[in-house]
Design a protein that fits this description.
alpha/beta; Elongation Factor Tu (Ef-tu), domain 3; Rossmann fold; seven-stranded mixed β-sheet; 9 helices; globular
Length: 274
């Protein structure tokens, strides 16, 4: 059993919890995730490790309430226990940027992006970040990024925070202004990551993406998280979740996600999501 030490509401449908998990805290690295089971006979939910406190033996997780399992997780409060937190899982992020990196977050993609950019900053890399969401209420971790990033750019679809538009609008503007980056790290909805790659690939700007297709067991045994990367079949939970964006076959990935649309609709809560 894993005790919830702290709980914080980040927006209407996004919450952050600090969980006592010393084994995971001692071993996790940026880019990895855990599998959380909210109740004994519940489903397995993959959640990115946003932060880890090795001295306290705790990890911080952020999740969006979008279905039955995350709704069950949202019912738990500080002091309650989570039956299972398995991990760390996945491959740690591989960083290529030496001088300057641009991070691009869409919605809750800010959660897995945060530890990666913070680690790069610790290594002396200059960090810029674009945070995008549908509206101001769905902007995540703005102040957290601002604590170490050199520049933070906000963009919302409705113009309620930052500029109006999409993350790719800001990306194109920065490139037109002559800003140079060693690497782009884009994490968010698949359609957003594909749009970013469509901008960066023609100019050869290395781009990493984090794929979060349907995951179940977190070991690759079930095959639900398989994706095509460079013509080869990969498993996001084992080989990823980070991949070279130039090699990801986004059309097939989006088609596979569509297979689960009806089931996802049935379990989705009423309300807005990113």
């Amino acid at each position: 059993m894993y005790k919830i030490l702290k709980k914080q509401k980040k927006s209407e449908l996004v919450e952050q919890i600090q969980v006592e998990a010393p084994f995971v805290a001692a071993r996790c690295r940026p880019g990895q995730f855990v599998i959380v089971i909210p109740r004994q006979d519940g489903e397995r939910v993959p959640l990115t490790i946003v932060d880890a406190d090795r001295e306290m033996g705790s990890i911080t997780l952020i999740y969006q309430i979008v279905g039955r399992s995350t709704q069950e997780l949202a019912r738990l409060e500080a002091g309650d226990f989570i039956p299972e937190v398995a991990g760390p899982m996945g491959q740690p992020a591989v960083f290529h940027a030496k001088e300057r990196v641009l991070g691009i977050a869409g919605g809750v993609g800010a959660a897995p992006l945060y530890p990666q950019l913070r680690e790069l900053k610790k290594r002396g890399v200059k960090v810029d970040v674009i945070i995008g969401a549908r509206s101001k209420e769905l902007i995540l971790l703005e102040q957290d990024f601002a604590e170490f990033a050199d520049h933070v750019y906000l963009v919302t679809n409705d113009g309620s925070a930052g500029r109006t538009g999409f993350v790719t609008d800001v990306l194109k503007e920065l490139l037109r202004q002559g800003e140079n980056y060693d690497e782009v790290i884009a994490i968010g909805p698949v359609v957003m990551m594909r749009a970013v790659v469509e901008v960066t690939k023609p100019i050869g700007l290395r781009t990493a993406v984090s794929l979060n297709p349907i995951m179940i067991d977190g070991t690759g045994m079930c095959g639900c998280c398989r994706v095509k990367v460079g013509g080869q079949t990969k498993f996001s939970c084992v080989d990823g979740p980070d991949f070279d964006g130039f090699l990801v076959e986004f059309d097939e990935l989006m088609q596979r996600q569509g297979f689960f649309k009806e089931e996802e609709h049935k379990c989705r809560l009423e309300g807005k999501t990113w």
